[in-house]
Amino acid sequence: MLSAAAQIACLGLLLRASSAPAWIVSIDDAGHGTDAASAVIMDPSGDVVAAGYTHSPNPGGDFDGFVVKLSGSTGAEIWRHVFPGGAISAVKADARGDVIAGGSYQGAAVFRLLGTTGTEMWRYVLPEAGGSMNAVALDAGGDVIAVGATSSHLPALNHSFVAVRLAGTDGSERWRRQLPPSQVYPFDGASAVTVDLNGDVDVAGRTLRSRSANCTHPSEEFTILKLAGLTGQILWRRAIRGNACGASGGAGNTVALDHAGNVVAAGFTVNTGTGSTFTVVKVAAATGRELWRKTVLGTAPNGRAHALAIDRYGDVIAAGSVGNAGRGQDFTVVKLAGSTGVRRWRRIVLGKTRYAHPGTAVAVRASALALDTAGDVIAVGGLRNGESVGSTDFAVMKIARASGRVLWRRLFSGAPTGESAASAVAISPVGDVVAAGFVENLGSSFDFTVIHLAVAAEEPAP
After folding, report:
1. Are 389 and 359 in contact (CB under 8 A)?
2. Which residues of 384-417 are buried (b: 16+ CB within 10 A; e: fewer)?
C-alpha cells in the first residue's frame, strides 16, 4: 500500500491532470526530499517495474537507489527494494520476470532481483569507488550486458568507458572491457547498449577525442563501439565528430539496430554556429562505416537527441530537443528514412506557453519514446507551462506514424509553479502507456511518479 503522504501526493497530482489516468503512483520519501524515476518497464505478467532514486534518510547519504513493482491493473505496490547510498538508472526484465537493475552503489553496480518478491539474488559492483552502470541488456542466453562509467583512482574524478558481461545465473564476470580514462575531462562513459543477433554488443557513449587540425586540444566525442559477445574484444570503434571543438565535444545517448543489424545511434555533436547539435547516425554492422548522418536544427543553437526507435519499415524515430529563438529548448521528435536519413517529418511540441522564462529548466525536452503496435509514437518528457520561471509539466503524447501529427497529449503537474517531467515510457501488450519521472508537489518537493494511461479511453488532443 502507498503511504499516507504518497496518497496525498497522488490526490494533488490528479487535481492538476489534463485528463484522468487509469492510475497514478507518487512516492515521497519521509524527509520530503528529491525523488525521481529514471526507468520503467512492463514485466511478462503486465506488472510495472520502475526505478530511480529517493532522498536518503541516512546521515551523509544523498540518495538511495529505489526499485518498485506495481500492479499493472491497479498501481498497488507489490514490493520495493532500496539500495542505500545509490541510484538506479536502468532496468530490464528477463523471461521469468526477474529484474536486472543497473546504477551506482559504492561504484558502478548491477543487481538481479527476484521478480515475485524483489529479493536480491546477486549483485556485481566494480572495485572503483565511483561511477554508474547507465544501461543494461540481456543476450539470448540470459547473460547480462551492462555499460557505464567507472572512476579511475588517479586522478580520482576522471571516469572511463566500461562494459561488462555477467552470467545471468550468479552475476559472475565473463569479461570486462574498460577504455583508458581521458586524464583531461572527467566525462568518459557509455550511455546505451544493445545486443545483435550474433550476440555481439553495440555501445554508444563518449570518449576522448584525439587532436586534429580543427581541434588542437583534447575534448570528448560521440563514440560507438562494437564488442565481441564472447570475449569483449573491440571489433570496431567509430567516432562521430562535428566540425567544432570544445570540452564537451559530443556524446552518444541512445542506440538501436535496424533490420539488417546496422547500428543507429543518436546524441549530439558540436558544430560551428549551432553548438551542441541533435545528431542521428547510421553505421554499418560489420565495419562501423558511416552510412548516413542527420542533424536536426532549430532557429537557435543547442540541441540533443535522447531517445530513438526503429519502426517495422526500418525508419528511424528520434526524440530530444532543439533550440529556437525566443523559446530556448523545445520538445522535438523527428522521423527519418531508414535507408538515407532523409527527414520524413519533424514535430516540435510547445507547452502551455510558447516562450521561455529566463532560466527555464532543462526538463523541456523529449526524454524517451516507444512505438505502439500500429507504429505510432508515444513520446514523453517535459513542457514549459508558463506559470513561473522554470516551471514544467510531465508530458505524455501520441504522434501519428505517417504524418507526425499529435493525436493526443496529456500533461500532469503538482505545485502550480513546480517542475515536473517524464523520463521513461513503456507500452503494455494491449497498448496502454506507462510513463515515469518526477512531479513537484506542494509540501513534498519532487516525488517519484508513475502514471498509467488507458489509451483506449483517450480522446483526441485539443
Report:
1. yes
2. bbbbeebbbbbbbbbbebeebebbbbbbbbbbee
Q: Is the pLDDT score of 160 beyond 90?
A: no
Question: Which stretch, 115-124, 297-306, 451-460, has highest mean pLDDT?
Answer: 115-124
429: Cβ–Cβ under 8 A, 6 or more apart, which residues? 42, 46
Higher pLDDT, 173 or 302: 173
The full DSSP string for 246-263 is: -SS-EEEEEEEE-TTS-E
Q: Are 391 and 385 in contact (CB under 8 A)?
A: yes
443 pLDDT higher than 60:
yes
From 423, 437, 454, select the one nearest 34 (Cα to Cα). 437
Strand partners, 222: 206, 240
Q: Which helix (H) or strand (E) holds 12?
A: helix 4-15
Question: Taking the model in full, what pTM does it have?
Answer: 0.91
SS3 label, residue 377: strand
pLDDT at residue 153, as a whole number: 52
pLDDT at 227 over 60: yes
Q: What is the pLDDT of residue 209?
A: 64
Q: What is the pLDDT of residue 15?
A: 35
pLDDT tops 90 at residue 90:
yes
CA 188, CA 403: separation in Å to the nearest integer?
A: 38
416 near 390, Cβ under 8 Å? no
Whole-Å CA distances, 36 to 15, 43, 137, 162, 433: 20, 20, 22, 25, 18
Q: By C-alpha distance, which of 255, 230, 52 is closest to 137?
A: 255
Cis check for the bond before 180: say yes or no (omega within 30 of 0).
no
CA-based R_g, the chain, Å: 21
Percent of the chain scored above 90 by pLDDT? 65
Nearest to 219 by CA among 155, 270, 253: 270
Cα separations in angstroms, 68 against 117, 134, 318, 448: 10, 18, 28, 10
Residue 372, classified by CB atoms within 10 Å of its CB into exposed (0-12), middle (13-18) or buried (19+), is: middle
Helix (H) or strand (E) holding 6: helix 4-15
CA distance 418 to 335: 32
What Cα–Cα distance (Å) separates residue 232 from each residue in 116, 177, 236?
32, 6, 11
